[in-house]
Design brief:
Length: 356
């Protein structure tokens, strides 16, 4: 029996030395040291041998098993290193190739989409798109828009002043614009009447909560001609509301006050989420608070004092008149798409952005 053990050990050692892969080595382990292999069976049969033979046979079988286990371990490490080197050599990644699968195509941010949608509506109504600087002087941001020095918006707590003059009421004080209205004055300085423009852009105010952000987006409109009335304003805004919120929408004008318009109005649109303030499931509408109306923007007829600042360019308030309006782009997006918190638009959470 000892001769057979030596024969099995020699045979196994030769096979293990010639193994070319980890898979082949595992097959050899099972063949020579597995539960059903011949060598382990011989070890189990030692107890049935004559007492004089047990010691020598058991010792020979154990030594053979231990020798093969050490050789298998050493050969396994050798093959693992060799196979890793081969894998590193062959599995090269060409970083110039496109991803697999291809990355999802991006999309416009909800604010950008809403801005472009609003612009398209007014371009279709004959307006042009105008832009201007975000860093303004107090003259364009306040004085030329008929905002008195006592108005609360001129306080340090309500406006981001970039480079205050010794007196913050100095017309040359530099600040971040609080609305896009300064572009109205700049555009009228560059172009005589008639003028029909919409002005999108970023604006800045020291606010930060669920419905306000220190930096937000507005789009304002200006129309000045020889025969522009409040009825023209209402018709323009009705066309806008129906294009954005649905063909069945109605609007209403409520008296209000803005320094740069007279008369001034708040504009509401009929709720598109309920009927008479009640939702389809019988609850009080959370969007309009049961009133059937939603405030969307402020507007009015351009105050003659505003036109007086550009009268030298043909805007004589005795000859021309016009209307102006302004809205928050985020507010329109929130209302149209049911976004509960303005800050979601700035969190860069892909779970939110991918919904639009």
């Amino acid at each position: 029996m000892i001769e057979r053990i030596e024969q099995l050990r020699a045979e196994a050692q030769t096979a293990i030395a010639g193994a070319s892969s980890s898979e082949a080595l595992e097959e050899l382990r099972v063949k020579y040291l597995g539960r059903k292999a011949e060598l382990p069976q011989l070890l189990r049969g030692v107890a049935q041998l004559e007492a004089a033979e047990r010691g020598a046979v058991g010792k020979a079988a154990n030594e053979a098993r231990q020798t093969l286990e050490k050789q298998l371990e050493a050969k396994g490490q050798e093959l693992a290193i060799k196979e890793l080197d081969e894998q590193l050599r062959t599995d090269r990644v060409d970083v110039t190739l496109p991803g697999d699968p291809l990355p999802a195509v991006g999309r416009l941010h909800l604010i950008t989409r809403t801005r472009r949608e609003i612009e398209d509506v007014f371009i279709g109504l004959g307006f042009n798109v105008a832009e201007g600087p975000e860093v303004e002087t107090a003259y364009y941001n306040f004085d030329a828009l008929n905002t008195p020095v006592t108005h609360p918006s001129r306080l340090m707590s309500d406006t981001f002043y970039v480079k205050p003059a010794p007196d913050i009421f100095d017309p040359q004080t530099v600040l971040l614009r609080v609305h896009t209205s300064p572009v109205q004055i700049r555009s009228m300085e560059l172009q005589p009447p008639p003028i029909y423009i919409v002005i999108p852009g970023r604006t800045y105010r020291p606010d930060n909560d669920a419905t306000h952000s220190p930096q937000f987006h507005q789009i304002e409109g200006l129309a000045v001609d020889t025969d522009v009335t409040l009825s023209d304003l209402k018709g323009t805004l009705l066309a806008f509301a129906r294009a954005i919120f649905g063909a069945d929408r109605q609007i209403r004008l409520r008296p209000h006050f803005f320094p740069f318009t007279e008369p001034s109005v708040e504009v509401d649109v009929s709720c598109f989420n309920c009927t008479d303030g009640i939702t389809a499931d019988g609850r009080r509408c959370p969007l309009c608070k049961g009133t059937s109306w939603i405030e969307i923007l402020g507007a009015g007829m351009v105050d003659p004092n505003v036109l007086a600042h550009v009268s030298a360019n043909g805007y004589d308030p005795e000859r021309v008149q016009g209307f102006a309006f302004g809205m928050g782009i985020e507010r329109i997006a929130m209302l149209k798409h049911g976004v509960p918190d303005l800050r979601l638009m700035y969190d860069n959470d892909i779970r939110f952005l991918e919904q639009f």
